[in-house]
Amino acid sequence: MLAPEAVQELKAIVGEERFRTDMETLVTHSYDATPMFQALPDGVIFPCRTEEVQAIMQVAANYRIPVISRGSGSNLSASTVPAEGGIVMVMTRMNRILEIDQENLTATVQPGVITKELHQAVEELGLFYPPDPGSMAVSTIGGNIAQCAGGLRGLKYGTTKDYVLGLEAVLASGEVIRTGGKLAKDVAGYDLTKLLVGSEGTLAIVTEATLKLLPKPEYRRVMVAHFTDLEAAAQTVSEIIANRIIPCTLEFLDQGTIQVVEEFANIGLPTDMAAILLMEQDGPQAVVDRDILRMEEICRKGNAAHVQVARTPEEGNQLLAARRSALSALARSKPTTILEDATVPRAAIATMVRTINEIARKNRVRICTFGHAGDGNLHPTCMTDARNQEEIERVEEAFAEIFAAALELGGTITGEHGVGLAKAPYLEWKAGKAGIEVLKGIKRAFDPLNLLNPGKIFAKETRPRVVITCPETREK
Amino acid sequence: MLAPEAVQELKAIVGEERFRTDMETLVTHSYDATPMFQALPDGVIFPCRTEEVQAIMQVAANYRIPVISRGSGSNLSASTVPAEGGIVMVMTRMNRILEIDQENLTATVQPGVITKELHQAVEELGLFYPPDPGSMAVSTIGGNIAQCAGGLRGLKYGTTKDYVLGLEAVLASGEVIRTGGKLAKDVAGYDLTKLLVGSEGTLAIVTEATLKLLPKPEYRRVMVAHFTDLEAAAQTVSEIIANRIIPCTLEFLDQGTIQVVEEFANIGLPTDMAAILLMEQDGPQAVVDRDILRMEEICRKGNAAHVQVARTPEEGNQLLAARRSALSALARSKPTTILEDATVPRAAIATMVRTINEIARKNRVRICTFGHAGDGNLHPTCMTDARNQEEIERVEEAFAEIFAAALELGGTITGEHGVGLAKAPYLEWKAGKAGIEVLKGIKRAFDPLNLLNPGKIFAKETRPRVVITCPETREK
């Protein structure tokens, strides 16, 4: 519950209209895209300017009110659920593209800009902003920065982190800092820009970002390959990279995903195949054509049952449709869909997929796996029912084993979704005790009163570590 | 002075041979490549294994001994001068390339590996490690990581930060942390990997690094353009980028540099020119040839007095010789050479060079400017004499004005050399008071006893900010 004086002060900053405590607004901001996490905030506030964010933080500091900043809430780690109450600060009204600087190849934006709108704005000028998270039609750049969003183009182009050059951010104290700038090189002090990217609103509130743009690739082409054998598909991924080809996307769907997508979308997918690889290359046409030709040969040599190169952009889009509709298809099949993103070194993909299947069988849960094969970022997705407590416990056990397996293979518990609430109990498995202490020290340095998105990243209790032996490490 | 017990314990860890307190060794490790900074350490230690680094740090923590880790000491910000005494920890005996993983395109190395040796090792396998600092023939990867080294290829390929995927590091407490991994995507907690890169040995001691590799570019080609007019050269840089060409290097030499280099090297440079641009493109041959042709046209349209495209790799190397010998040439002309690296947004280069010349004239000092035009990272270089105190004061005033001017244009006080001791008095100009407090908080979180490279990055006193108005901002 907020003190009446605090409410009054907050209303004085933004006006009655932009500070809400009605139940409808509270419920609307009690959850994000993560299933099974929900908590009511005490208020919801909609700032329009950096100065308002500063003033709100000063009130929050005075009255010790937690502040959870968010954009569209499309994250998948319960990163914006107000776990300890407080005020949800919705950044969507700070949604202007302030500048696209064609000389310095930068865009300066407010945090509420929708990712896809930025894509369109820069592409009209022949420029390119590569990060393309699955939620890009609704996600905000501020949210992408908070979570360090990835996407399909990560293999060739990296993730959000690689495109944030500078930030304006409001600290827990209400003070403003400015980091970086329109600069390719800047080593003046520790890199606060990269530290804030992926910090999930726990260190500061981003109010402006300067982003790096690239020239837009001139040409793009899509191809697909079907495999009766999972190993052959994974081996083909490795062969492509070993041949020094870095396609802009290199996506993978396992048999379970293929079957569910076909059932949902009826687009003629081969439900008897063990795996589909989807590849796209972009760049100058001559290079794209050459790379596609070479990937076609590698797929054929790698025993693909079927290889198809799109002849037109429309055909390319059709081929990509299978991947694009994967999540929607999986989400329809059962009441609750849990989408994870355990990530492994690229060369360990086949082992990881086999391990996931083994874990699912053992725990009697249904998990389909698709994802970014090129960068080892897999999305094992569980179709379940949150109302079935007994099944949910088995699902949780299965995911704990999946995280343990990813770490066993040199991977991580989350490639692009973030820690939030959902993966906090597992973070120590990756970071180690000493690492967690360092992370907590950084949190304290920024936010000594623990007001910014409290309860996230750091769990009250670490889950006991599951011992898992992956097939590959077993063989050794 | 070290306590005799501490000396005994340190010798017990590494043996007599690898812990030195003789004057010759102390003097040898009292300075780095930065002129006018020197301080004697109390001892010099040469660890061979991570466990030794841990044990040394435990002794250092017990006896409150500062520890300054270093590689070859080729940095230009006095970042490895033992300003407050203590032990210099030389990492050059941990110099093995542990693995080059061709499936995951990574190299795992110890910190003492020489940058150029890594280049050679990966290039033999058709792979590529882009960071190429000027000192790469002697610099170590550990030093590159500590300073976030840049180089000539920064415009297209970024800097060291963009290639460090994971680290093993020893904390001030002696504990080990492991960050990241062979992973393109990893958002498990704040990004400690990127935070440690560029932290100049003040947060932890890097004992192992996993680096990202790229396929080696198939082909490369060099060209040069001479300009009678500085503006025309700068405008040409902007035009190249505006035409969506990102060359792998785009270097600039001003008239002063041209004259000094020609005097030194006698390679037929046109001493009457206001500027030379050197461009290199790499990639598939068809693309390189097309980009070179387009850059040639842009240079001609931009009123270049002379344009030459190298016909052979040997001719390319000859053209690059002017840039490569710039520092040596400048360094020979006077007893003391101060090489700075104020950096501005690319579009502000002409303004910045003009401002530098104006500042040099006003302060009656000789400054030549060359550097990475494509990424706005300039190296204004002052030829002076450290023994002439009156002149040195004018030099310092001039550099203070240059830093102020860079900031005025949206730039930074250091693009790739680091803060160290040399630029610590200016850091607050860039980071702001609130920013400095955040940076200090991070330092305290890692190193509460202030043992790791104390005195660096944070100055005892901030230099009063010079007020400078650049020609461009004056016109507004």
List the helices and strands and how they pair.
Two copies of one chain form a homodimer.
Chain A: H1 4-14, E1 19-20, H2 23-28, E2 43-45, H3 50-63, E3 67-70, E4 87-90, E5 97-101, E6 106-109, H4 115-123, E7 127-128, H5 141-147, H6 154-157, E8 164-170, E9 176-180, H7 192-196, E10 205-212, E11 214-215, E12 219-227, H8 230-242, E13 249-254, H9 255-265, E14 275-283, H10 285-301, E15 306-309, H11 313-324, H12 326-333, E16 336-339, H13 349-362, E17 366-372, E18 377-384, H14 389-408, H15 427-446, H16 471-475
Parallel strand pairs in A: 2-4, 3-4
Antiparallel strand pairs in A: 1-2, 5-6, 6-10, 7-11, 8-9, 8-10, 12-14, 12-15, 13-14, 13-17, 16-18, 17-18
Summarize the structure.
The structure is a homodimer of 476-residue chains. The first copy, chain A, has 476 residues and is of the alpha+beta class. Chain A contains 16 helices and 18 strands.
Structure write-up:
The structure is a homodimer of 476-residue chains. By secondary structure, the first copy, chain A, is an alpha+beta fold. Chain A has 3 domains: 1-216, Uridine Diphospho-n-acetylenolpyruvylglucosamine Reductase, domain 3; 219-322, Alpha-Beta Plaits, CATH 3.30.70.3450; 334-427 and 462-475, 2-Layer Sandwich (Alpha-Beta Plaits), CATH 3.30.70.2740. Helix content of chain A is 37%, strand content 20%. The first copy, chain A, is built from 16 helices and 18 strands. In chain A, strands 15-12-14-13-17-18-16 form a 7-stranded antiparallel β-sheet, with helices on both faces. In chain A, α9 crosses α12. The radius of gyration of chain A is 23 Å and the shape is globular. The mean pLDDT of chain A is 95. At the A-B interface, β9, α7, β11, α8 and α10 of A face β9, α7, β11, α8 and α10 of B.
